[in-house]
Amino acid sequence: MDLLEEYRRATFIFESGDPLGAARLLEPIVEAEPHNAAVRQLLARAYFNSAQLKRAEAQLRLLVEHDPSDHYAHHVLGRTLERAGRFREALPHLRLAAAMKKQDDYLDAVRRAETWLGKNEAV
């Protein structure tokens, strides 16, 4: 198996709107190349986009563990936890990503989680 060609196919399939198909191609590549962050990140995004949140979380935690300065991995991990309704766990990752890189979508995610927690802590 040509891993690079399979990665390119998986990227094309992901970008074409088929995250499940992309994940099926990416899983053996991650198994063969466990330290390849780009492949692992795309697999995490494919899991996120196909609502496989536990699998996305597992991949993203490995990325964050390997490179704690990866703002994007922190952001997507926070978004994954947010999507799972785990706002309290999401907020530190979302804040860290926003502190590392000023991007509107990062700041929006922080505000969303803070708002949700603020409204629901009073209940």
UniProtKB/TrEMBL annotation:
SUPFAM superfamilies hit by this protein: TPR-like
InterPro entries in the cross-refs: TPR-like_helical_dom_sf
UniProt protein name: Uncharacterized protein
Phylogenetic classification of the source organism: Bacteria, Bacillati, Actinomycetota, Actinomycetes, Micromonosporales
